[in-house]
Amino acid sequence: MSIPTKIFYILYKRISLNIKAPNKLIYKVNQPLCNLAILSALMIVACSQNVPKSVSVKSKDIRTSGIRLSGPEAEKIGAKIWKNECGGTLEGLTSWNKGEYFASLGIGHFIWYSRVKQGPFEESFPKLIRFIASKGIRVPKIAKTVDCPWSSRTEFINSKNSPQMNQLREFLHRTIPLQTSFILTRLERALPKMLIQVSINKQKKIKHNFYTLLQSSQGKYALMDYVNFKGEGTNKKERYKGKGWGMLQVLEAMRPNLSSSQATLEFARAADHVLTQRVDNAPKDETKWLKGWRNRLKTYY
């Protein structure tokens, strides 16, 4: 309940219903004064609804129901993911990579499909926008559309300095901490999604590797970056020759019973194996991406 709404509620209760105040006195007023007080409270409530909330979001501790990041951890991890996806640049927050048929937005290059063509990869930008809006942050109109309003990379690039694009870019820059929180939320939800995909015998290994990585800041970063980078590994559409390349497949490929100090290096090794397998199985040549992917994995340890 907002503060103005609380004011109205208290005034209404104390004045029109003669409720006892904390000092044990009973407030009794005449009807005109009662009406005036209630009208004043209603005006306060009505006016407050039109006050826009600031889009600026400061870094602070982020906690989901099971995973917690300190303010410094969240800021550092968000900056690393931003650098991985966008080179840490403002312009990189609104991208459309050559050879792709979708826009990549925000620090996580969240996918946004146009009406012209959808794809097998999970579309995450609309989910991000709903997440940010749920926190009470005002979202630009352009970001609320179901489909990306630019239908091609050429159209997108030609609009890079348009008012709409500048507004979108500024919004994404101001909400970087919330984007980090969104990725953390996705990570937490990933574990149960992964466990139902594997046999009971494999579940113990998956859980052990997952929680071992969470014991260090670097491990948290590796998991958050990878789940944003290549997904949970549970989408059956994200397969080449029946083999996936998401976090599930990496955790499965890790050697068991590692200490937290060894876990990030092993996670990177397993991810390299899984991504190399993806390139080998790809219907089109994806070799050009492998070098960049490997450089990214080196930041995990």
What does this structure look like?
The protein is mostly helical and 301 residues long. The chain has three domains: 3-48, no CATH class; 52-190, no CATH class; 196-301. Helices cover 54% and strands 5% of the residues. The chain is built from twelve helices and five strands. The chain has helices at residues 3-16, 31-48, 71-86, 125-134, 153-158, 163-174, 176-195, 200-213, 217-230, 247-253, 260-281, 287-297; strands spanning 62-63, 68-69, 94-95, 102-105, 110-113. A three-stranded antiparallel β-sheet has the order 3-4-5. It has a two-stranded antiparallel ribbon with strand order 1-2.
Low-confidence runs (pLDDT<50, min 5 residues)?
2-56
- The main sheet orders its strands as 3-4-5
Count of domain modules = 3
Q: Characterize the biggest β-sheet.
A: 3 strands, antiparallel
| Residue fraction in strands | under 5%
Mean pLDDT: 83
List the secondary-structure elements in sequence, H or E: HHEEHEEEHHHHHHHHH
Cα end-to-end separation: 45 Å
Helix content: 40-55%
* Strand segment tally: 5
The total count of helices amounts to 12
Structural class: mainly alpha
Overall shape: it is: globular
Task: Specify Rg, calculated over alpha carbons.
Answer: 25 Å
